[in-house]
Amino acid sequence: MSATDTGIAAPTAPTVKAESILAAARRTFLASGFGAASMDAIAREAGASKATLYVYFSSKEELFGAVIARESERYAQGFSAGDLDPGDVEASLTFFANRFLRLLLSPDIIAINRIIIGEVVRFPALAEVFWQAGPERVRVQLEGFFRRAAAAGTLDIADTRLAAGQFASLVRGELHQQYLFGLGKPDDKALSAAAKNAVATFLRAFGTRK
Amino acid sequence: MSATDTGIAAPTAPTVKAESILAAARRTFLASGFGAASMDAIAREAGASKATLYVYFSSKEELFGAVIARESERYAQGFSAGDLDPGDVEASLTFFANRFLRLLLSPDIIAINRIIIGEVVRFPALAEVFWQAGPERVRVQLEGFFRRAAAAGTLDIADTRLAAGQFASLVRGELHQQYLFGLGKPDDKALSAAAKNAVATFLRAFGTRK
DNA sequence: GTCTATAATTGGATAGAC
DNA sequence: GTCTATCCAATTATAGAC
After folding, report:
1. Residue from A201, A161, A208, A145 nearest B201 by CA
2. Do B122 and A181 touch (CB under 8 A)?
3. pLDDT category of residue A1 using cuts at 50, 70 and 90
4. Is B107 helix (H, G, I), strand (E, B) or coil?
5. Hey, which residues does B155 pair with through a beta bridge?
6. Quick check: B201 and A205 CB within 8 A?
7. End-to-end CA separation in angstroms for chain B
8. Is the pLDDT of residue B153 over 80?
9. Through-space separation of residue A51 CA and nucleotide D6 C1' in angstroms
10. DSSP string covering A54-115, please?
11. Which of A68, A164, A180, A184 is the most exposed place for a label (fewest CB within 10 A)?
12. Which residue is nearest to nucleotide D16 (CA to C1')?
């Protein structure tokens, strides 16, 4: 409020409005996909008019891009393997597998996976962004851990990059695909069992005898 | 041509027209997805009018369903593991992995995967159909082979169902996901290498010494 | 059965008042 | 900056002639 205040009610601060639009767009896109989500619906969800949407985002595509970019950012936030102990690979990998699987199967991540895969042809750049922020990041973390474990002699791995991909694939297993296809979410016990089974098989292949 | 032939040029036989519409719809949906494909475009591609489309399929959704159902049918046609030799697991699994991977990464299968995943929310039943005809069928074939190999003592597997899922996951690896996201198709040599690596790891875990 | 022409609706985007 | 009201293009679906 300055001395030149006109007395007219100050409109909502721009960033707040933009935030609420982004949040509404996020909910709407994730629930309906790009094609089925209308700007009308997003405006309604945001409690704003369509015209206001277009003040902040010049097109539906741009708004979608902003949503996906932000969600990609959040994907693997703080998903590190740096604090895992190469001395106890079974415990470390089990811990990692459980965290990874629960992240992967969380409703938000499944929804964003579906959207990006469904819109790859129209938005190839967004898929690339998501890949780098998500799967690739996880693989790099895993590979670092395997390099340390191989050096410590607790895992018998020659190609750490390959092993990281294979471990991630084992953990994803059928569950990820199955859930992408909308075929029933497993309960918590099933997730823990899946993680345990993946680790067991991986250790049968690459574990070292004590 | 009967004695009551009016002399008016006989219209194209219904099945032929329906076929050409289905084929055009298949190409259009697979190329653009459900939302971006218009009935106009499909009619043009089929060399028919929109009105004719609606004679055979009462809505866009129904036409889409017909396309997906047919493609699902073709998915794993003749994808059997019955002729694999449990006596030579390495050769058998390598053969299987190569076939499976090439099927999975073929442009048509990738396209249909993208569409179904992208439209799961709107068409959950189609996802179920595809799953049964595709991934589930492959898993069943694999499990049968593993049961035989376990009985023959050439593989050390307790849970054949679990092992089938794990083997399929290892073979898919990162390639499947990566290609779903549109990140470059691997060449033939890379595919063979991926198959070989998957088999090698699987055999490290479940192979038996001779 | 097949077409042309069109109805009816939806949805992205904008003009203009405040 | 925000809203209401509206424009306009695209799209699903159908009516009616042949």
Report:
1. A201
2. no
3. very low
4. helix
5. B207
6. yes
7. 71
8. yes
9. 12
10. HHH-SSHHHHHHHHHHHHHHHHTTT---TT--TT-HHHHHHHHHHHHHHHHTSHHHHHHHHH
11. A184
12. B51
